[in-house]
Amino acid sequence: MEEWLKVAHSKDSNDSLAKFRSQFYIGSGSYYMDGNSLGLMSKAAEESLLSVMEDWKRHGIDGWTEGERPWFYMSERIGEMMADLIGAEHHEVLATNSTTMNIHQTVRTLYKPTEERHKILVDELNFPSDIYAVQAILDDSGYPNGMVEVPSENGHTLSTDTIINMMDESIALVILPSVLYRSGQILEMERITEHARKNGIIVGFDLCHSIGAIPHDLKEWGVDFAVWCTYKHLNGGPGSVAGLYVNEKHHPHKVSLRGWFGNNKETQFDMSHKFDPALDISQYQVGTPHIFSMAPLLGSLEIFEEAGIASVREKSLELTDFMIAMIEDVFEEGEIEIVTPKDHDARGGHILIGHPDAAGINAALKSKGVIPDFRAPSYVRIAPVALYNSFEDVYNTIKILKEIMDGRLYKKFENKRGVIA
Ligand SMILES: *Cc1c(COP(=O)(O)O)cnc(C)c1O
Prior knowledge:
Order of helices and strands: HEHHEHEHEHEHEHEEHHHEEHEEEH
Structural class: alpha/beta
Strand content: 5-15%
Distance between the termini: 30 Å
Radius of gyration: 22 Å
Strand order of the largest sheet: 2-8-7-6-5-3-4
CATH topology of the largest domain: Aspartate Aminotransferase, domain 2
Helix content: 25-40%
Bound molecules: pyridoxal-5'-phosphate
CATH class of the largest domain: Alpha Beta
Shape: globular
């Protein structure tokens, strides 16, 4: 065990991102391993929220156009700040609504079913909200049986070949996660997109678990649209406004969910009853933006601009490599199942481990200051985050896990999930 601490110390002293840790509020004596569910608050995010509140105090209604960060343009401004993280152009990215709402908006707008081609391809491992949205859209479009789910052979990962084989001429649109929220597998977005384009299929990705953790080249790959939340790796705070990308080639399509904030800004306040759509991504907005739920992103995204997503990814892989190596070393073979793919190209920013007593183990970890999250029926997700976790945090997490397993301390807790898990 001790030699792993030495490795951790040496990695921490060579860590070029180590300086960012002090910019986050990290509870003392705790090891936060849940940044892929809710990222921690940074001082920059706190300051930007306070400064936007100050603008309200000082300017009242004029805050829409005055102050340092006029509210009228904030959705677009944050979109620009996120563009590099996904490899898109400024006028293709926007902060608006929630992820689920953005799926409704983009899929409803871009899905153009015909009798021959009306199916939507999803996967059986995706987050339920994405599936509910797609099913609702199919119900409304008169194709309630149009959803096709890519099966998983092992219950954890998807095969690109299977996905591609299912993308036939009956499929109108495919929406898949970039990184699976449980196993952490990265799907081969470029290959899937290439195949979709060749076959006239609209392709979109849900980047909730990849944005801020891995780099993307959506524009170059030719992805049609993408959605993501900003409260996970982007550290925007609980319920922070989501992100949206739509390839500029689709900007001429009129959006399905229309509202006055999707109108051309020049004519928005003419208050005409004739919708005059914005000519870029702005058209995808609906109503008045949730300013205080966006404001933390102004600060939080500056940290990403400074750190650079390539360095974030590099350290993230080192952290998860270190965690996997330590687990494999300190536990008996098979004692703890590592579900996440070990290949770098197929691994996102978190690790999923399996054990029949996972709920009890998760509770025991929490009682000892480690904050992971439990995923039913028998898995624990652990996310060491490059911007604020150290290698020593990872060392302590696995050391505590080892104590729990050796002492069977999980037996003291009910092997059952809480309301939020
Ligand atoms: C976190 C997450 C969501 C959450 O959607 P909201 O609309 O923000 O509640 C949706 N899909 C995936 C894949 C997620 O990981």
